[in-house]
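Much of what follows relies on a compact textual record of a protein's fold. With that in mind, consider the following protein and its fold in token form.
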Amino acid sequence: MGKTVKAKKSCCKDKPRCKRCPVVLKRLEAVGLAERVDKRTYVVVDVIPKKTLKALRSPAKRLSR
């Protein structure tokens, strides 16, 4: 299965973004590495490649699949 992660209420807009940031979780969902359960709850794949997570957390989203 996967790990359940609850997103923060709002984005902190740090660079790079934190792992619990709603923007990062939404990007993970778009790529197919996370599934939305509730409004702020996601189920994330067990192992996310480090390169992919780093690209999704960066200010400019430069990951295409």
Q: What stands out?
A: The two ends are 22 Å apart (CA to CA). The chain has two helices and three strands.
